């Protein structure tokens, strides 16, 4: 499965999400090609958005397994005098 990438035309500022491989060439803006009858063929530029840190929920992930435990938990120890 190939990922979606966001591209923007530098001429008309049209933004599109296109599914393609990482190694594929930049797509051509069809709006500009149609408007100029094929004489002006601008390549769209890839837009890099702000991505957030993924949040994993549940057990089995580093952040939930290795966080500091609450120090207020009291553990009863058995008497060693018996």
Keywords:
single chain; about 80 residues; alpha+beta; 2 helices; about 10% helix
The multimeric state of the shown protein is single chain
Mean pLDDT: 76
Unreliable stretches, pLDDT < 50, 5 or more residues? none
Strand content: 5-15%
Q: Would you mind describing this structure in some detail?
A:
The protein has 82 residues and is of the alpha+beta class. Helices cover 12% and strands 15% of the residues. It has helices at 30-35, 62-65; strands at 4-8, 15-19, 45-46. Strands 2-1-3 form a 3-stranded antiparallel sheet, with no helix packed on it. The longest helix is centred in the middle third of the chain and has 6 residues, at 30-35. It is rod-shaped. The protein starts with a strand and ends in a 17-residue tail after the last helix.
Summarize the structure.
The chain is of the alpha+beta class and 82 residues long. It is built from 2 helices and 3 strands, in the order E-E-H-E-H.
């Amino acid at each position: 499965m190939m990922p979606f990438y966001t591209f923007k035309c530098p001429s008309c500022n049209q933004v599109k999400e296109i599914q393609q491989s990482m190694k594929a060439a930049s797509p051509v803006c069809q709006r500009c090609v149609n408007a100029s009858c094929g004489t002006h063929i601008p390549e769209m530029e890839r837009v890099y958005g702000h991505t957030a840190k993924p949040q994993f929920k549940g057990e089995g992930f580093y952040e939930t397994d290795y966080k500091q435990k609450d120090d207020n938990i009291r553990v009863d120890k058995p008497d060693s005098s018996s």
